[in-house]
Each structure stands twice: as structure tokens, then as C-alpha cells.
Design goal:
The protein has helices at 11-20, 56-66, 82-85, 87-108, 144-163, 185-197, 219-232, 249-258, 286-292, 300-314, and strands spanning 2-6, 27-32, 47-50, 70-73, 113-119, 167-172, 175-176, 204-207, 213-214, 217-218, 238-241, 247-248, 265-268. The protein is of the alpha/beta class and 316 residues long. The strands form four sheets. The chain has a seven-stranded parallel β-sheet, with helices on both faces. β1, α1 and β2 (27-32) form a beta-alpha-beta unit. The longest helix is centred in the N-terminal third of the chain and has 22 residues, at 87-108. The radius of gyration is 19 Å and the shape is globular. The chain starts with a strand and ends with a helix.
Length: 316
């Protein structure tokens, strides 16, 4: 069974690679553009293809060579805030790369079951009456990133409708865990805490808006849902991936502070304060549950402890 995974060296992609290399019947092929730090420990257990997904000819050659039975497209620009500064880069990476992949699959492997990872950001400005957010909630994207993910989602549907390419769309809500970059709230808090433990900064964690509530799930549970969906999801359909329960940013911070022996105070940094367009967001995950039997298995307190431990390993 040949599996092609784009974005294999990314946050979610590296966790998915760890899951797939444990499956003895899988021959795993990964697409990597630049660094492969997150998957260096998997050397020898998978085949890496180094190149740029914006290069349509190169993508076509990779797909022709691999002829995957399953493709999971995780490569993407994932910085929502940064999409305001670089909207065209966001569109180019998220739209052109996927277009090249789907075209290559249509040409060389049209029976390949393909998972396209979209985002809860496609729902954008949800109203309280929309909660919990199901797959029929209208799109109201409120960032260039959100627009790019709407396009990815609809492109996958179009390739199913027009070419019968068996695409499944995953709409992921917020996920976190070890290896996440520190431009995401929980990881930013965890890094500050570990630097305080190491005596590298004063014992103060500086924060922005803590009141927003989001649907958080451990990244290892999310990638398990990806693999279940590409195998068992109905082609042409979309599926929300999330716990189905909201947690506040404040809860994340307070839990992390409970997990450290350091005595730390919290200060609001006005530079980090941003009004939340969506105070509360969480999903209805029943379509996913019914299709696959998936349930989140990792308690978020464990997730946050693992995140702290990862920063402790990195900061010596």
C-alpha cells in the first residue's frame, strides 16, 4: 500500500508520518520542501521526495513514480495572522500546490483516495446561533488564509464532481501538541514557562486575549482522524475534525502553570491584545464519528505536559 504525504516535515505531517511508519503494510512517501528536522528520526523508514509543489512538472513526475493508493495533502501555509502580511504567498502555496497535486493524480492515478486538509477558518465569522458548527454552516472567511482554505475545500469537491477523483475533505479545528511552533498560543506560553524554569527570562508570562474559546484537540488524535478518513470517509464529502467542546485560552495557560514548579505571574501585554472576531467556536463532529468511530483519546492536560517536555528538551 503506497501512501503519499505532502507536508511530511510540518507539525501535523510529522505526527502523521510517525503513525504511518508503524503500519507494516504501508510504503510511505513524503514530500519535503526545505528542512526535515521533525522527521530526521524516521530516516530509513520512508522515502523522501525533495522539491517544490508549486512546480507542476516535478509534482507530476513524483506522482507518476509513486502511483499512490492514498494521498494526504497537508502541505500548506498555516499562519493565519501572517496571511494578512503575505496574502499572495498564502494563496500561491495553498491553492497552486494543491492544484498541481490534484492534476497529477487525475492524470496518473485517478483512483487514488485523496484527503485534502481544509480548516475551521473557512467558517470564519460564526454567529452564536451557528454553534456547534456543522458541515452545513455557511462560509464567512475573515482572513486571506480562510479564503485560501475555502478554495482548497471547493477545489477538492470540484475534482470529485468533474473527474470522479475520490477526494475527502477534512475541516480541522484547533490542534496542539509537541513540536508546534511558538507562534501559536499554547506553544508560546509553554516556551516562556520553560525559559523561566531555565532562568533565561524573568518569571512573567506575557499574554494577550485569554477569553476566546476554541475547539482544541491533540495533534496526534487529529492525524489519526486523517488516516481513518482517507480510508473510510465517503468520497466527495467533508468532515469536521475536533473534540466538539470549547476550551478558553485562559484554561490552556492555567493548566500549563499548574504543570510547572516555577512561581510565575501573568501580565497582559497590550501589544499582544487583539479583539477576537469570534469569541467562541467549536464543532459538531458527528459526521466524522459515524463514518469512522473516531474519538479523541488524549486528554488535553497530557497534551500540554508533552508540549512542555518538548520545549524542555529543546531549551537546555
Amino acid at each position: 500500500m503506497r501512501v503519499l504525504l505532502t507536508g511530511i516535515a510540518g507539525f501535523a505531517g510529522s505526527h502523521l508520518a510517525e503513525l504511518l511508519v508503524r503500519e507494516p503494510e504501508i510504503e510511505l512517501h513524503g514530500v519535503v520542501h526545505r528542512h526535515d528536522r521533525r522527521i530526521a528520526h524516521l530516516a530509513g523508514q520512508l522515502a523522501l521526495h525533495r522539491g517544490d509543489l508549486r512546480n507542476a512538472l516535478w509534482v507530476s513526475e513524483v506522482v507518476e513514480t509513486v502511483r499512490p493508493d492514498y494521498a494526504l495533502h497537508l502541505a500548506a501555509w498555516s499562519d493565519v495572522g501572517g496571511s494578512w502580511q503575505q496574502p499572495w504567498t498564502t494563496y500561491e502555496l495553498n491553492i497552486q500546490c494543491q492544484l498541481n497535486l490534484l492534476e497529477a493524480l487525475r492524470r496518473w492515478q485517478p483512483t487514488c483516495r485523496t484527503l485534502v486538509v481544509s480548516s475551521n477558518e473557512i467558517y470564519g465569522l460564526v454567529e452564536p446561533a451557528d454553534l456547534p458548527i456543522d458541515e452545513e454552516t455557511p462560509f464567512r472567511p475573515n482572513s486571506p488564509y480562510g479564503v485560501s482554505k475555502v478554495t482548497q475545500d471547493m477545489m477538492a469537491l470540484q475534482y470529485f464532481n468533474s473527474h470522479q477523483l475520490p477526494t475527502v475533505r477534512a475541516r480541522s479545528f484547533n490542534h496542539l501538541g509537541p513540536g508546534q511552533a511558538d507562534d501559536f498560543a499554547a506553544s508560546a506560553f509553554a516556551r516562556q514557562i520553560v525559559e523561566i524554569e531555565r532562568g533565561q527570562r524573568e518569571p512573567v508570562v506575557r499574554v494577550g486575549n485569554l477569553s476566546a474559546e476554541r475547539d482544541f484537540t491533540d495533534v496526534r488524535d487529529v492525524v489519526r482522524a486523517y488516516w481513518m478518513l482517507v480510508q473510510h470517509g465517503e468520497a466527495g464529502l467533508c468532515y469536521n475534525i475536533g473534540s466538539g467542546a470549547p476550551r478558553s485560552i485562559r484554561w490552556l495557560l492555567e493548566t500549563l502553570l499548574e504543570l510547572t514548579p516555577a512561581q510565575i505571574t501573568v501580565e497582559v501585554d497590550p501589544a499582544r491584545l487583539r479583539p477576537s472576531d469570534v469569541p467562541r467556536s467549536f464543532c459538531d463532529n458527528q459526521r466524522l464519528v459515524h463514518a469512522t468511530g473516531w474519538q479523541p483519546a488524549i486528554d488535553l492536560r497530557t497534551t500540554l505536559n508533552d508540549l512542555l517536555e518538548e520545549w524542555r528538551r529543546q531549551i537546555r
